[in-house]
Specification:
Shape: globular
Structural class: mainly alpha
Order of helices and strands: HHHHHHHHHHHHHH
Strand content: under 5%
Radius of gyration: 24 Å
Helix content: over 70%
Length: 360
């Protein structure tokens, strides 16, 4: 199956953003260590309390579960910070690297990335809200156009078809981050309106994205399985040092370690590859109104996105000229059409419009 990205180029981009990749590693491994530490501490306290009731193993199990759950709740609470600082920041420097701009080294690269993110999204709340709407719209579109059960109604194969649908949906997980990359690349003054454009560009090229995303998913699953097998034995040895936990906690903590490695290393690779696909496939295209109408029909969130874009434009009107040329693939500004409209003439009817539609 042909792909529209270069593995060598992806590694080259990740190498250019190595300082941010190290920052990303530190963040996710810090989270991983916090989860393991809180689980062990909770289990220890539970063991001591359980000893009073002559049921130390049960107390240790409950305490470990409480510690694990506490860290998981904190992770959910800080997910907007992770998106704003870690994911969006890395996206920002990756886009700069794609366009050949020089990047600072060391900690300066992290500060440089955050400056770009603040310029585009102002606050983490705006970025988080934009990202959440994009995810909802992508899910609605995928349900409407990637429902394998509807395409191939095979009797008695519901389980297999459900699995295939899961593969398809997971393969497109990184599209929201890719769309954020598009917003950064075109220097979007209105993130809501520009997200609409990006989603339409995705929709009118969905077959190309699906092909590449499925290829990436297979690669991610293979790498994740290999990492899981490699970390399982060390985690089991660590758990064996604490008598109050064991069994399911060995699996849970191994999954936490795999999750940290996946978030820090594997997902940046997949996102960068899909970002390459988006920029390559949509290069020179403009949003097709027919696909925009289809998105409006299948997703109420897409209509919400349009409303928020209009509200943003009313509150923060764009400057008449930004002084820079649009990035490749950016649609021309509506105020500067390619050619002036032809006025109506009362003496003769106009011929039918045979101009091909954009993006097809």
């Amino acid at each position: 199956m042909n792909k529209d990205f270069s593995i060598r180029a992806v590694f080259g981009l990740l190498l250019k953003t190595a300082p941010f990749l190290v920052f990303r590693l530190l963040v996710y491994f810090g989270i991983m260590l916090a989860i393991i530490l809180f689980t062990l501490i909770g289990s220890g306290f539970g063991w001591m309390i359980g000893s009073i009731a002559d049921n130390a193993p049960a107390g240790g199990f409950v305490g470990g579960l409480v510690g694990f759950g506490f860290c998981y709740a904190l992770l959910i609470f800080f997910r907007s910070w992770l998106l704003y600082i870690v994911k969006a920041g890395h996206i920002a420097v990756l886009v700069e690297a794609v366009d050949g701009r020089p990047l600072p080294g060391g900690k300066g690269q992290v500060d440089y990335a955050l400056k770009i993110v603040r310029e585009r999204f102002v606050t983490s709340n705006v970025l988080f809200a934009v990202d959440a709407l994009i995810k909802r719209i992508i899910r609605a579109f995928n349900r409407a156009f990637f429902n394998i059960a509807r395409l191939f109604p095979i009797p008695g194969a519901q389980g297999f078809i459900k699995f295939l649908n899961t593969v398809v949906n997971y393969s497109l997980t990184f599209l929201d981050e890719v769309i954020l990359a598009y917003l950064v690349r075109i220097r979007a003054a209105n993130p809501w309106k520009s997200s609409q454009t990006a989603l339409v560009l995705y929709a009118q090229n969905y077959q190309a994205f699906l092909k590449n995303a499925v290829w990436l998913t297979i690669l991610i699953w293979v790498l994740t399985l290999v990492i899981f097998l490699l970390v399982l034995a060390p985690v089991a040895a660590l758990v064996a040092l604490v008598p109050s936990i064991g069994g399911i906690f060995t699996l849970l903590l191994a999954l936490v370690v795999v999750w940290a490695i996946k978030q820090a290393v594997i997902e940046p690779f997949a996102m960068t590859a899909l970002m390459q696909v988006f920029f390559k496939v949509t290069d020179g295209q403009v949003a097709n109104p027919e696909w925009e109408a289809k998105l409006e029909n299948v997703s109420g969130a897409f209509r919400d996105l349009a409303k928020k874009g209009a509200d943003w434009a009313a509150e923060k009107p764009e400057p008449p000229d930004s002084g820079s040329a649009p990035a490749s693939g950016e649609p021309p500004p509506p105020s500067a059409p390619a050619s002036p409209p032809v006025p109506d003439t009362p003496t003769a009817p106009e011929p039918p419009d045979k101009t091909p539609k954009p993006g097809t």
